Amino acid sequence: MDQGNVSRIINDSEIRLDWSIYDLNKLPGEDRRAAAEAGPDQPGIVHENKGELLPEVILLGRCNVGKSSLVNALMSNNRQSATPYAKVKQSAGYTPCLNFYNVGGLFRLVDSPGYGVKGKPWQGELTMQYLAERRELRNCFLILNGDIGLNKYDELILEALVEMGVQFDIIFNKIDKIKNNSRIQHYEELISTSILNDLKIKPRIYFANSIESDLKQRTGINEIRYGILQSCGYSDLQTLKPRRRRKTINDTIEKIKEKNARKSLKGRVKINLQRDIH
């Protein structure tokens, strides 16, 4: 994995929320398709959503699995604390619709409503319609609770993805809830005893922890970013140039901190060398 360029691309990318969608026919691309299917005599759909079509990936997960926190980590600058693009709340069900985040003009990351006990039927219908009909969709990342494993709602979603023929990968989140010395055994047993073991086409599996306070301690983020870029058809990362984010006061502060840290490190090395010489 080209970790350096993966970090550069996301760190440099301008991030913006393009659309919050409650009706798939109000999504750019779908409006024209709906009008074409309706025929020339039917009035076209007029709405305020505009923008170029880009490759899209969607994150799915049951309520309170840490999906929005993961969305924030994936789009944030590695050198700073996570930026709250997606709203996070301790109680479940805080993402009400499909939110489309434009990442550097390269792709859109779609945050979906959580499914399960707290999910609403219309939210599930909207998400399923998107998965079945959206032509810009390149991959689906299904987030599973790495601590307690799959439940019946996760299994239903997996079965639906297979039946619809939607490409998907798996992210086990919250792996820090499992002790380091038992993680391998835990996930081997979890996968071998679940519906994942019965899949004919095996998805890629990623592992991420749930540390939110410091991105430098968050594991698995660059691997997932790399998977997203690959899914969207970007292979030559070295020459890939996103639409750059505007510099903020936080960027300036972080650069000053990094510069001072390097100076301090050089000073300590110089002092240690002088001590060794004498």
Automatic annotation (TrEMBL):
**One Pfam short name:** MMR_HSR1
Q: Is the keyword Transit peptide in the record? A: no
Q: Which residues form the EngB-type G domain?
A: 53-234
Q: Write down what this protein is called.
A: EngB-type G domain-containing protein
Superkingdom of the organism of origin: Eukaryota
- UniProtKB keywords: GTP-binding, Magnesium, Metal-binding, Nucleotide-binding
Named from the GO MF annotations, one term is: metal ion binding
> Which PROSITE patterns does this chain map to?
G_ENGB
Q: Kindly list the GO CC terms recorded for this protein.
A: mitochondrion
Species name: Ogataea parapolymorpha (strain ATCC 26012 / BCRC 20466 / JCM 22074 / NRRL Y-7560 / DL-1) (Yeast)
